[in-house]
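Q: For a teaching handout, I want to show students what a protein-ligand complex looks like in token form. Below are the inputs, and the small molecule is uridine-5'-diphosphate. Please produce the holo structure.
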Amino acid sequence: MSDTAKFKRITLKLSGEALQGKQGFGIDPEVLGTIAQQLAEVVYLGVEVALVIGGGNIFRGLKASAKGMDRTSADYMGMLATVMNAVAMQDALERLGVVTRVLSAIEMKEIAEPYIRRRASRHLEKGRVVIFAAGTGNPYFTTDTAAALRAMEVNSEVLLKATKVDGVYDKDPMKFDDAVRFERLSYLEVLSRSLHVMDATAISLCRENDLPIVVFDMLSPGNICRVVCGDPLGTLVAP
Ligand code: UDP
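A: Here is the structure, written as tokens, with uridine-5'-diphosphate included.
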């Protein structure tokens, strides 16, 4: 692996589920620590890191609304869940000596700074890890879309989508032995084949703005650094 970063500024989308480990809910401190360590290594390479964390390990709006809850209320709860994850990640990173700021799309100034694009860019320039919390701040959206949106707003060169599998497959690799991994896909292929990369709104946003996405396995230690250094891991979704 090269130890020179290929990108100056990245946005990483981490699903809430990535933090729950084997316990199946909430935040596993050990997993949180391992991810924070990987992120710290990327920061030490001199890369500016923006992070968008989901909330699915705590609460999902769609699931709750399927059981009768008002969708908007449920989505606000989902967004609050992302704030909990963001604060947990901030704590884990700062224990490693990494300077961070949580910027929330829903104002809660005792906990996080409000999201202001110029402020986010300034923090990144100063080498602080910016953790975007509360998604887009709007119900009916996802943190995938928030990641695409924020990546474009702060001019990230790439959107890294960390998952549990090592890329995008033509069918579920957990169920089918003959599943084939794609090395590269176009945005249209992802949309037309309904491949599980990110939701369609997020993919469309990236497509309209030519933002490349790398889908890769974050559970293998060192992988975030490898992707940032340009190792051809996972699947690239690009024009
Ligand atoms: N959410 C929302 N608007 C946003 C982002 C998230 O309403 O802009 C809510 C939605 O209810 C979602 C929950 O927050 O189910 C958690 O986010 P997501 O499902 O994207 O988390 P992940 O799957 O990445 O853990």
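A: Two things your students might notice: The pocket of uridine-5'-diphosphate is lined by residues 15-17, 54-56, 60-62, 74-75, 78-79, 81-82, 135-136, 138-139, 141-144, 146 (CB under 6 Å). Residues 9-237 form a domain with the Carbamate kinase fold (CATH 3.40.1160.10).
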